[in-house]
Amino acid sequence: MPDTFSMLLFEGFSNLCLANAVEPLRAANALARAQLYDWTFAALSDAPVHSSSGLPVQATPLSSQLSGAYLFVMPSYGFEALAAPATARALRAAAARFDTLVGLDTGAYLLAHAGLLDGRKATCHWDILSQAEEAFPEVIFTEDRFVIDGNRASCGGATTTLELMLEIIEQRHGASLSLEVAALFMYGERAPTLDPNRLIPTHRTVQAAAALMRRHVEEPLTIDIIGMRLGLSRRALELAFQAHTRMSPGQLYRSIRLAHARRRLEETRDCVAEVALRSGYRDATAMARAFKAEFGITPSAARAARLSEGT
Q1: CA distance 138 to 26
Q2: Could you state, in order of their start, the residue ranges of all structural domains in the chain?
Q3: Residues 6+ apart with CB under 8 A from 22
Q4: Which of 116, 133, 147, 223 is the most exposed place for a label (fewest CB within 10 A)?
């Protein structure tokens, strides 16, 4: 069964925030070739909800007993007026039907107002962080870009929503898929500035390495060259991968290339030899062996299975 997400929208919500929440889920489904995630748009009433730029969304009323893995609370502007008794009652009722509640942008303010963050760590848009700390002393507000505390999560705005979604995808379906989604959106393309006081680079360094791998599928780079482009030794890059993904750089690179091969087999009419070349394999037989080890079926069987799905 797919994980179900409900995006609770309020008048004046941010288009960018919504896109950064939903598009990674869509991309993960496409990259995994499976329906890992479903999502719905929700509101407190049955009237259309408009974004801050005027985009209308016809959402399902939250009161219609929506339930699932995640409820994302997305108010953006006008959050103070939304912090009303009716909103708090609706959120408290929904808390019993969703596994995890998430406050995006100023959403943590509404969750805190409803008493759903008491004793928890949280963050929100930094423009209102001090205001939230004063209004809700029971909540441990921090300046982190996103926070996950048990079955509560929060982030500070539109760009940090993408970071939170990548973390959720990693927790639910592994580092390899999360890194591929990040690379698809060119997230982590530029290597972060390394702190000389840190022995192991940050997760952003791993994302930058994954982005390089995805851009060099047909003509693969060596792991040494990837490390050099990021200002790291091979050993330092390997340590980063061990710390953040429990994979080696080579294992991730192979997974990215084979996933690319499978997409080409399923979406094009290229012969297996051509797919192998486009995936960085000069030997189609070697690609076929690696493909079967990765997916449990041969390239021809993968293509045949997708064709049968379309008939």
Answers
A1: 36
A2: 3-172, 174-251, 262-309
A3: 5, 7, 39
A4: 133
